[in-house]
Fold this protein.
Amino acid sequence: MKLRFNDINGVSVTEVESPCRNMCEIDARSGLCRGCFRTLAEIAAWPGMTSEARRVLTERLAARSARAPDEE
C-alpha cells in the first residue's frame, strides 16, 4: 500500500495513493482490471472514497492479486 503524507494547516494527513498501474484492461471473466485488480465500480468510486475506505480496498486488492493466476 502506497501512502502519501501531506501537511494541511499544520496537521499531517495520510492519503492512500491510487493502486492504478496504468495497465488498464478489464478481464471479461472476473470483471477485474488486470493491472490493479479493481472492479469498474471500485475504479469509479475511488475519487470519492475516504482514506480509510481506500486503505481497506487496497488490502483487499493485495489479497486478490495474490490469488490471481500468473499471466504468460
